[in-house]
Amino acid sequence: MTRSPHGVILFNPRSAEHKHRIPNSILQVAASIQNDRSFALVDGNRERDPWSTIRDHLASGRYRYFGTTVMPGPQLRQAVPFAHRAKQEFPEVTTIWGGYFAANQHRTVLSSGVVDFVIDGPGDEAFPALLACLDRGKDPVDVPNLIWTNAEAIIRNRKAALPDMDELAALPYAALDEVYPLHQYLGRTFMGERTLAYHSSFGCPFTCSFCAVVPIYKARWKGVSAERIAKDVKYVKDHWGADAIEFHDNNFFVSEKRSVAFSELIMDEGMGWWGEGRIDTLDRYSDDSLRIMRNAGCRMIFFGAESGDDEELARMDKGGTQSGEQILRFAARMAEFDIIPEYSFVLGFPASSEKEVLDRIDRDISFIRRVKEVNPATEIIIYVYSPVPTEGSELFDRVKQAGFHFPDKLTDWLDPVWENFDLRKNPLTPWLTHRAIDRIRDFETVLNGMYPTVSDIKLDQRKRRMLQQISRFRYRRGAYSRPYEIKLLQKLWRYRRPETEGFEML
């Protein structure tokens, strides 16, 4: 096969200020083109001046395409201005975006005039097919998973079936290691000294109306086989010393058979691991399966509990069989296997009045306290509801009726309030008053003081005990308002927030 002379820059914008994970998104794309053309990996997390590196690549004349992965939030701070600079300084270069933000906000992205194409979902087939069309000067009408413009009209090409992930090329870890030493991505977490970030599946088979995955994958899921996962993990362990794994799948545990087979394959590797799943899915796992997973190093599982109110769960279109009673029962069951359940709750959904919003928040707070009663080890993560454009869902219809809308211009997303919105720090929803937000945040502060997260590995036992001592009175009395003394200690000790920072990495 003749290699194309037109190379590709694959850019991962900065997403965090400190220890960084392997940029799996651009590695996945690089794997799809590594036999066809040259590529340059640029990780904004590891570059002091990433634009200078990108500009040097573009100025060399070897790269015709500039691909960027874009998640909502901090990545926009580099993605947006760099797209403008590339178009201004190198107008002949084609700019291609992928990721949740690009797909879910594609109208705003494409109308900006600085992004030419958006990959809507997996790019393993779409990206090389798009480049092949552009190399030949043809319109990409047959390229799947592509959103683009033609005569100012936005065109959404057909959705491709999810690929057989075992047939996809292996990620080019060695190519990344040549640019950024890979061992520097393997940081210390509560699971191990050198933690690998790994993605083993695409999508999720459910349709939660608040989830950014749903509009892209349409309730589809496809996973790598247990054998392939184990092979990849052992490869990174043997070459760079990984001893723990974070599975960044949207839903790792869809298949009990796969979960158990993977566990059995790495049973003797001494690796701790974490993944995301659904309560109603894992509650169907047998005791033997959960025991095998724990013996193989499963330390914690993240679950979207969302709410203890069955009517609210129905409005979220969670699908499956999850209920408030099941959430409580399963938390207790996990304690039997020494696997920490990490429950996330979403507070602040739209309602017809401020009183109804506050009443729902109070009910959720009471339910979270019940979870802690049945299993105090349960980690609780609280999000303030941030709408996602899941057209046709009852929840998104309620959001629009309440007067909420997203920015119309790409540059407007650079406003700090929208970055914080995407991190669920600063809700801009018209139904949430300051009183409601304070009620959520104050409870969260007291809860985290009473039950500090185990994933904050910098917080020693002395600090944990002190936080618990000053929080105990408030928690027992339900006196959450204005917990300034707890906030002061959390700020002083840089208490980490799992909901926005992920696991602490050293």
Q: Provide the residue-averaged pLDDT.
A: 91
Structural class: alpha/beta
Residue share in β-strands: 15-25%
Oligomeric form? single chain
How many strands appear in the DSSP assignment? 16
CATH topology of the largest domain: TIM Barrel
Number of domains: 3
Name the CATH class of the largest domain.
Alpha Beta
Alpha plus pi helix count: 21
- The CATH superfamily of the largest domain is known as Aldolase class I
- The poorly predicted ranges are none
How do the strands line up in the largest sheet? 2-1-3-4-5-6-7
What's the alpha carbon Rg, rounded to whole Å? 23 Å
Report on the structure:
This protein has 506 residues and is of the alpha/beta class. It has 3 domains: 7-156, Response regulator (Rossmann fold, 3-Layer(aba) Sandwich); 186-401, TIM Barrel; 433-506, no CATH class. It contains 21 helices and 16 strands. It has helices spanning 24-33, 50-59, 76-89, 100-104, 106-111, 126-135, 173-179, 214-217, 226-240, 256-265, 279-282, 287-295, 310-315, 324-336, 354-374, 394-401, 416-422, 434-450, 461-477, 484-492, 498-501, and strands spanning 7-12, 39-43, 63-69, 94-98, 117-119, 146-150, 153-156, 187-189, 192-198, 201-203, 221-223, 244-247, 272-277, 298-306, 340-347, 379-384. It has a 7-stranded mixed sheet, sandwiched between helices. The chain has a 7-stranded mixed sheet with strand order 8-9-12-13-14-15-16. The longest helix is centred in the C-terminal third of the chain and has 21 residues, at 354-374. The protein starts with 6 loop residues before the first strand and ends in a 5-residue tail after the last helix.
